[in-house]
Amino acid sequence: MSEPEQPSVTISDPLDDAMEIDKSDSTAPEVLPDIKEIEDGVHSMELGTKGKAKEVVPVEEPEKEEDNEENKKRHLNVVFIGHVDAGKSTTGGQILFLSGQVDDRTIQKYEKEAKDKSRESWYMAYIMDTNEEERAKGKTVEVGRAHFETDSTRFTILDAPGHKSYVPNMISGASQADIGVLVISARKGEFETGYEKGGQTREHVLLAKTLGVSKLVVVINKMDDPTVNWAKSRYDEIESKMTPFLKTSGYNVKKDVQFLPISGLMGFNIKDRLDKKTCDWYDGPCLFEALDKIEVPLRDPKGPVRMPIMDKYKDMGTVVMGKMECGTIKKGDSLLVMPNKANVKVLSIYCDENEVRQAGPAENVRVKLSGIEEEDVLSGFVLSSISNPVSAVSEFHAQLQILELLDNAIFTAGYNAVLHIHSVVEECEIVELIEEIDTKRKKDDPKKKKAKRKPLFVKNGAVVVCCVQVNNLICIENFSDFPQLGRFTLRTEGKTVAVGKVVKLPPPGSATF
Ligand code: GTP
Ligand code: MG
Question: pLDDT digits over 29-56, tens only?
Fold first, then answer.
């Protein structure tokens, strides 16, 4: 069975505050993201419009009648991110092995295959890296997708590539994820290369935060390596260097981030806690426990239906694909496809390959609809409830953080870019700069209440509220109401120039102010 293609940008975490640039929260980092770091981090990258994912170990899904049983466990998507060769695929493979999905014989086969390719230590990564190119080069290209369960949760692992050429695939993986496992190699020199300019550690963190990954487990991997040998000093060094960076990237390190030492290759501190003989100073949870306990703000299953459509096809009716961002759909429901206000009926719903009676928030689904022709649906349209449909507008106000303008251009009214917001990709124009936000002011500075004058232009690093126009109606929401439908990137010539959030929409029912 072919795996449905995934959306390039769907944002997954409702209460995520990635774009909260307001620093009034005392737990927020003191400084704004260091723009230089963002510039260094967000490289020239092509945002794939359709990132592909490969299903790694097909799971035997429960029978249909177990729907209810199955639904008792929450479902979370976890993306594995980090610099090339940090050990993402090895750790992902080890998770599948330790959760009993890969048998010893298969491991032996991979050991032999890896040896034949002179890549002995890569055998665990072969569980996730299934295609020939990946195995030959030892580099993940397509996001690998696999499943495992802990006591409380069904997890889908998305194993992203670390190599900078495949950042678009990483974006597509991260945009589907609720939580991230940031894999960092502790091996001498490897942490440094991943962390420095041009390394993907920081770029991935910034992208993950922007794309809605609200919680991070930072695994400090390769602790078994002879250059590390489970040394606490190395672990502490990496943790202390990562912490300020994570803060400036918008993560609340105390609440949203936890660090763990692991060895993906040896399988240590993954399913079971470390034994004292291996490491006598670490007393915390293993990876499974950490993932099991992570609380992500739940999307509202009773809220209005919001399912951005990322793809569609004909199959004895019109089938749309996407991720449920809010609400629940059931077989037989009447819904609206926006912005064309088409009344549709849900004929059937599929999660993975299985037909289900209903689907709630965070599920990736395919929905067969009656009442609309396939050619009348476009990706970027949103399936929504009739009583509370998504806003369809051609104009909105946004708070933008300018990352890196091409050739240090200035950002002014008339600036054109491509807007990427959930599964929407549209040309847009900045028609007015409304207010520049002074990011350096102190929290209690009385000057902050001073009325702002409208800026004529802003430069790299600025945070600015502006009015954005598009030619076609797009379905978006205020970030404060539906973060997944209110957070976006602006790109020009394949580079991300700004990240932003929607702060104001035209009055209900109108497309413009
Ligand atoms: P990309 O997909 O290319 O970004 O790399 P990756 O992060 O998936 O790394 P991968 O799992 O392919 O591992 C890269 C190399 O690091 C392989 O040689 C692994 O054997 C090695 N490695 C991974 N985890 C560990 C570990 O815990 N200890 C040691 N010693 N080596 C490891
Ligand atoms: Mg890999």
Answer: 333 333 333 333 333 222 333 345 677 8
Distance between CA 121 and CA 139 in Å, rounded?
13
Q: Which residue has the higher pLDDT, 72 or 178?
A: 178
> For 435, what's the count of Cα atoms within 13 Å in the CB-facing half-sphere?
13
Residues pairing with 467 in the sheet: 397, 432
Q: What are phi and psi of 457, to 5 degrees?
A: -155, 160
CA nearest neighbour of 163 among 186, 126, 189, 193: 193
Question: Which atom of ligand 1 is nearest to 268's Cα?
Answer: 27
Phi, psi dihedral angles at 360 (to 5 degrees): -115, -170
Task: Give the global pTM.
Answer: 0.72
Atom 13 in ligand 1: residue holding the nearest Cα: 87
Task: Show the CA angle centred on residue 211, arms to residues 208 and 213, nearest 5°.
Answer: 55
Report the pocket of ligand 1 as residue ranges, CB < 6 Å. Answer: 84-90, 121-122, 125, 138-140, 161-163, 183, 221-222, 224-225, 263-265
Torsion of CA 381, 382, 386, 389, to 10 degrees: -100
List, in sequence order, every residue forming a beta bridge with 498; answer none if it has no partner.
402, 490
